[in-house]
């Protein structure tokens, strides 16, 4: 089958594989009756072909191609794995969907979305997932509404592969009871950050394989405890940095390994959002848990001290507070429960840079920031208690042994998109859902080819943009942010895939067949 990237006059986008493909000969022949235009286009196409040939020749010499990473071959299905989900908030629901369990509400909304916008491919992507041979055996949440939604999800009849679970998952309010069950083999931990270490340690003691959402822990001492416990066990641990499955990151790593950029001295990674939801200031009364960017519970199922076990939810948090819906639904705004911009969003980029460059731990790090926009003084009707997590933040990491500085900057009050930028002496690489490599006019490596006109520094030396058109199918601002980061979908063999699904599959394959997950405890 022809690789979509090699089709004549088509883009690298996998979606173009269904479009007509015409040769240059066909186009010129069709324009023969318009002499002036035909001559212009003939010369233009001839020049474009020559430029393209030259660029391909250069990339070939450098050991590069536009082919996507190889399709991940699934091994033959083996034993059933019985899964438990601890924390069925929006991320718990998203990871469960990646495992093949989308809620009926999500399916209904996805159907409405595709009817309203043909570019919305969420349902198509979900249904095309591989059946991972799982049973959703248990769902734990301290909020009754979320727990009930997770239980209902377990028997949803719209599933990849079409196999419907006959018995609903068992519900738990206390995660210890779920871990004690002999009916659970592996757990997904998707609670607020302050619970990650405690539940992971208890899961290790209970002999359960672990998929833990980032950030792995709140503190360094917790990280050491978790590391030691997992290393002493034979359990498979996967940290939820699902961008590890991004095809653009794999292609970027190839660029670094082949020294396409030359000496990289500066890497910049960023976060930009400009909405209350993007700053974790979620509304308190919502429509449905399934609009994961904005909502959690309907007005009719409003959280109360009766339906929400507040004491259990606070658990190991360093400070205790009376029942507080703001702190529950907007927990990322306080360090008692979350890890701020560094643990929630920088962690994705830091992991991506390590995946691409193997930087490891920096020799030094510094950070600063402040709460400059989302205050109760500015938004008295929206915010009742001021946050202690900054909405503007920057961090600098020094790697003198690599001759490199990594810089992170973030604003939750500005939406200007800035990708991950790797600045080398010979070229600059920008990475998001795709990647672009632009030659530097002062490059030493490419100097002769620049002087000969083979390389035009005004044009990309290399670009890789799988599914570039599909960004138009994403409507919410925060969803677009994640899509541009490559966190919503990636591509394998021209097929759009949820990277969370690939990340869960990687973990399950290691449980079944051995090996270490891509974001194992060492990487975490």
What does this structure look like?
The protein is an alpha/beta fold and 524 residues long. The protein folds into three domains: 4-61, no CATH class; 81-245 and 490-513, NAD(P)-binding Rossmann-like Domain (Rossmann fold); 247-281 and 332-473, Dihydrodipicolinate Reductase, domain 2. Helices cover 32% and strands 16% of the residues. It has helices spanning 24-30, 35-61, 90-98, 104-116, 122-127, 144-154, 175-180, 196-206, 220-231, 247-257, 310-314, 325-329, 340-357, 447-451, 477-484, 499-513, and strands spanning 81-86, 134-140, 170-172, 186-189, 209-212, 237-239, 264-272, 364-370, 392-399, 404-411, 420-424, 427-431, 435-439, 462-464, 490-492, 495-497. The strands form three sheets. It has an eight-stranded mixed beta sheet, with helices on one face. It has a six-stranded parallel beta sheet with strand order 3-2-1-4-5-6, with helices on both faces. A hairpin with a 4-residue loop joins strand 9 (392-399) and strand 10 (404-411). Helix 3 packs across helix 16 (499-513) and helix 10 (247-257) packs across helix 13 (340-357). The longest helix is centred in the N-terminal third of the chain and has 27 residues, at 35-61. The relative contact order is 0.15. Residues 1-48, 68-76, 286-300 and 469-483 have low confidence and may be disordered.
């Amino acid at each position: 089958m022809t690789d979509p990237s090699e089709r004549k006059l088509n883009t690298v986008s996998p979606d173009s594989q269904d479009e007509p493909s015409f040769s240059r000969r066909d186009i010129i022949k069709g324009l023969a009756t318009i002499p002036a235009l035909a001559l212009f286009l003939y010369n233009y196409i001839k020049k474009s072909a020559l430029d393209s040939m030259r660029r391909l020749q250069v990339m070939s010499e450098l050991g590069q191609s536009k082919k996507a990473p190889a399709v991940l071959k699934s091994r033959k299905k083996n034993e059933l794995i019985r899964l438990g989900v601890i924390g069925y908030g929006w991320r718990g629901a998203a990871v469960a969907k990646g495992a093949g369990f989308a809620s009926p509400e999500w399916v209904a909304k996805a159907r409405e979305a595709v009817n309203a916008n043909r570019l919305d491919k969420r349902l198509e992507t979900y249904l095309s997932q591989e059946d991972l041979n799982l049973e959703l055996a248990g769902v734990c949440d301290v909020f009754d509404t979320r727990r009930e939604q997770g239980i209902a999800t377990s028997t949803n009849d719209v599933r990849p592969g079409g196999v419907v679970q006959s018995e609903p998952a068992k519900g738990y309010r206390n995660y210890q009871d779920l871990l004690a069950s002999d009916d659970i083999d592996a757990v997904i931990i998707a609670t607020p950050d302050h619970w990650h270490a405690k539940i992971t340690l208890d899961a290790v003691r209970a002999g359960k394989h672990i998929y833990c959402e980032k950030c792995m822990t709140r503190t360094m001492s917790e990280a050491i405890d978790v590391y030691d416990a997992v290393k002493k066990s034979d359990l498979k641990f996967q940290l939820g940095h699902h961008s590890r499955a991004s095809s653009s990151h794999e292609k970027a790593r190839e660029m670094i390994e082949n020294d396409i950029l030359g000496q990289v001295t500066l890497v910049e990674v960023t976060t930009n959002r400009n909405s209350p939801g993007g700053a974790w200031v979620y509304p308190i009364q919502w429509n449905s848990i399934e609009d994961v960017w904005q909502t959690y519970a309907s007005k009719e199922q409003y959280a109360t001290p009766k339906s929400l076990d507040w004491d259990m939810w606070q658990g190991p948090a360093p400070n205790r507070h009376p029942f507080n819906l703001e702190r529950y639904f907007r927990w990322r705004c306080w360090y008692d429960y979350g890890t701020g911009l560094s643990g929630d969003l920088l962690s994705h980029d830091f992991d991506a840079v390590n995946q691409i460059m193997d930087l490891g731990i920096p020799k030094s790090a510094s950070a600063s920031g402040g709460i400059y926009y989302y205050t109760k003084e500015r938004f008295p009707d929206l915010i009742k208690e001021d946050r202690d997590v900054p909405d503007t933040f920057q961090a600098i990491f020094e790697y003198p042994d690599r001759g490199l500085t990594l810089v992170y900057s973030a604003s939750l009050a500005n939406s200007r998109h800035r990708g991950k930028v790797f600045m080398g002496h010979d070229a600059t690489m920008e990475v998001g859902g795709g990647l672009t490599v632009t030659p530097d006019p002062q490059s030493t490596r490419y100097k002769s080819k620049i002087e000969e006109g083979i390389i035009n520094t005004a044009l990309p030396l290399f670009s890789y943009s799988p599914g570039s058109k599909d960004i138009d199918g994403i409507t919410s601002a925060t969803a677009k942010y994640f899509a541009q980061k490559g966190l919503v979908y990636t591509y394998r063999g021209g097929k759009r895939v949820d990277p969370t699904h690939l990340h869960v599959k990687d973990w399950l394959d290691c449980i079944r067949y051995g090996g270490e997950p891509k974001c194992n405890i060492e990487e975490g």
